[in-house]
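Action item from last week, closing it out:
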Amino acid sequence: MAALKVATSSFLVREFTRVELGARSELPKSVRFGGVAKRRCFQGARAQAVAGGQAASASVGAHHHPGKERVDILAEALPFIQRFQGKTDASLKDGVIKDLVLLSCVGLKCVLVHGGGPEINQWLDKVGIKPHFKHGLRVTDAATMEVVEMVLVGKVNKSLVSLINRAGGCAVGMCGKDGKIITARAAEEDLGFVGEITAIDTTVIRGILNDGHLPVIASVAADSEGQAYNINADIAAGEIAASLGAEKLILMTDVQGVMLDHKDSTTLVRDVDIKGIRKLIADGIVSGGMIPKVECCVRSLAQGVHAAHIIDGRAPHSLLLEILTDEGAGTMITG
């Protein structure tokens, strides 16, 4: 089984510490950056064209047959598709949704876990509740939790389900409360109803996947008494991926991935293992809002997920590029 998870990218705030690149030679050998890292068992330029959503640009004049060319490209992508066929993948909006549906149609089992910070803030403003944050976490009192649940479960979740269904998929929307998928408790008393996960039950998810549908899960959970809690979507996705025995955890963000210098895209770290990512944190290269994201990846790897990826959900076809090409689109972290 494999699981590809993607949290809503736009609500995660990123902070980075600028670093100088003169010390590249001091980085562990397990860190590879820039260029094309041949980190996947994937080969073939034509499959890369499929992942990018474009047919190869061969000019053959009047005898050019774009339809046949697209079929040829899909045929050449078959080895990459077969590598993950029947495995579970958990993953965002519109363009990403179409890519997600494509992956589902060719046999990948996908699970989408999402949050929705911007939408929550908009509705809090509408009802006159001022958001408060502590250590980057939303302080969630009873009134705020009511809005959070209504927005994530009633609005964002059903919007994503509609987008998937309109794109040709068959999605089933739910939240962590349904089927006791996520059981939680209070994370910190002064954060209110911000929860930490105490248990995961994937029975309902597996049933939906086995029926050929795509689960869409809002990151709202409950404790044994039924009290609702707001759960970080990345953490929820990582725990669900681990419980499913996922092949992949893919976190969508609003940055390219882990970079040695966040202002220089050529310093993207394409491959790194757990030892390497810990050194990047210790050296201050990974900092701020990226730290909990990579720690989420490390936790999922420690629980059996084969690979964790951090990619930019704003980049066209980043999801397909990460799965179906040699170089990928972001950072892959392995055990």
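Closing note: The longest strand covers residues 195-200.
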